[in-house]
Amino acid sequence: MARVSTLHDPSSPPTAPQHAPHAINAAARSVPLPHAHTTMEEALDKGLKAIIAKSTAGLSPIALAAAYSDWALHLASAPGKQLQLLEKAAKKTTKLARYAATCATVADAPRTCIDPLPQDKRFRSEAWTQWPYNVIHQGFLLNQQWWHNATTGIAGMTKQHENVVEFAARQMLDVFSPSNSFMTNPDILQKTLREGGWNLIRGWQNFVEDATRLNTGQKPAGAEDFEVGRNLATTPGKVVYRNRLIELIQYAPTTDKVRPEPILIVPAWIMKYYILDLGETNSMVRFLTDQGFTVFMVSWMNPHAEDRDLGMDDYISLGVIEALDAVQAITAREKVHAVGYCLGGTLLSIAAATLAREGDTRLKTLTLLAAQTDFTEAGELQLFINDSQLTFLEDMMWNQGYLDTTQMAGTFQLLRSNDLIWSYMIHDYLMGERTPMIDLMAWNADATRMPYRMHSEYLRSLYLNNDLAEGRYHVGDRPVTVSDIRAPVFLVGTERDHVAPWHSVYKFNLLSDTDVTFVLTSGGHNAGIVSEPGHPHRHYRIASQAKDAPYIGPDLWMAQTAPVDGSWWPALTDWLAKQSGAPTSPPPLGARDAGYPPLCDAPGTYVFQK
């Protein structure tokens, strides 16, 4: 079949090539664009919700009220559960009183009567074992445990509502944690006495600076030390293609010979692409080129209100298919290794399934980094996914044409409030110290917007309805399925991922009909992927599964797969090398004769869009 791109955006430079529509792209564009609204009454409803959303950080009060009503009504009609909670309250009160009396009268009293959860680092210092702070924090943990019992295990509640109520109770309790208060945190009190209160003065200065930066739209303190093109995203290359949605970067070779199959990387569009090209020592792009691969990277446009009607099909056609066309034209190669990270990996999976549906065998391999294809266990993000919440979110996006960066950041901070909100407040405002800025944190502050239509389609089709995993996801007028993919897959999950939990990533094994090599690496969603050789305290597990082998559950897989110290990156390049041909001379940067001339130096122009 013909493998050429769709028409370029008319605003592209005159040097950009013009091509006839690709068959897949034509199918992708067959779905008509929705009207922003059809009646004045609908516009009135949407406008009101958009106004409310500004004061609720995009969270639907109706969805929250529904969850609390479900909890309260079922608890009110469960006298047995109420008696159980009364009994637990009495036991915990007695337990705390006995512990307090023992601490006051016995020299070698036990350190605790309840241990915090493994991930709870708030009370680890030795000062929390001293009177009265030991009793204060133990009382808080017992209260926290009681509220967990009070919001879970109530017969009749929907699971989603139970998760929401438990999460909300945990968030409210965290506000009143003794670690967050000057008077009940011994570490803060000791530092204040030691420094004569100067830590609080510095903390106030830090707070004023942060508030000023937030209100004026500036980046966090220290981010100015990291600049794209200077010490971030510095791997040499050229932008060789541009349309209204992407710039395609081709990186310069660093070896005399390269593998014949190029690598096309599709990053997530929720953030800038250069998480995979940070500094010189932790750039995955630089590592791949040093291992003898020709690397291309998609750099996404930062959408504005006028891009509101860009949908998932546009991201497939303009983002993946046109980039694939360009890579093949420039390198004159039939086969391509495709790599997708996070949302980019999900998009790449859909594109690969679409290509397979059309009988297009261009993809030599598929590498998916922290990317989900089944969303039934998509982590705590599922708390914000139901019809009520999505309708509220859609009305907010309808009003402005996109999902704003601050609205996304607030959601992710809530999911890890102890790590991202309260620990920061304690360290920077009460301790009076500054959290050192690093390249990964600077990248994290460089967020992008998401178009109204695309984000709505993504959340409804994938998170809410799980259409891709269940065979209902349409590209054009026909469904696609992951089971059609025949290219071997290198699948990576991270142990502490709160965005794409590794159990959810692992579900690709249930959907696929191809050979899968699964890697489980230490770290979280970002730090686990940016895990360069030499990074301390890193390990990973790796095992391959043939397409006709019996299925192994994730927990059993982990139990029987021994950890390996170090970075997983060499394992990826070893795997890619085995799937590649013998090294040959590197291709030129761009191909003017094929209609893909170099347009500018990497990192391009889209990465600087605000």
From TrEMBL:
Region called Disordered, residue ranges: 1-21
Pfam families: PhaC_N, PHBC_N
Transcription regulation as UniProt keyword: no
GO biological process: poly-hydroxybutyrate biosynthetic process
Keyword Transferase set for record: yes
The Poly-beta-hydroxybutyrate polymerase N-terminal domain, residue ranges: 42-81, 119-288
Keyword annotations from UniProtKB, A to Z: Acyltransferase, Transferase
Superkingdom in the source lineage: Bacteria
Transmembrane annotation, as ranges: none
GO molecular function: acyltransferase activity
Protein's name in the database: Poly-beta-hydroxybutyrate polymerase
Annotated organism of origin: Litorivita pollutaquae
Lineage per the UniProt record: Bacteria, Pseudomonadati, Pseudomonadota, Alphaproteobacteria, Rhodobacterales
